[in-house]
Amino acid sequence: MVDLSIEVVCVAKGREVHQKLKVSDGTTLGEAINQSGIIEQFPDFDIVKARKGIFGTLRSESWLLKDLDRVEIYQPLIFDPREARRRRAAKQG
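^ thats the sequence. predicted structure below, dont judge the formating
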């Protein structure tokens, strides 16, 4: 069985955590998150419901990882980025 080197990253609640792991070939995104221990580091952030991806592309928890993948856990947006642009434009007149 081949070991894969991956990284699991979560930025939430003003904190940023990076965990480098060695996982077995055939490990899914969800399994890697569980193995990383990140869930315990963010007890007030519902990682199970959070969106997840690999290098900025949304993926399901059943996604099979490849060597050097970066698993990312995304916090929900505070508000729509389009709305933020509208508000900035309105302030500028």
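The chain has one domain: 3-92.
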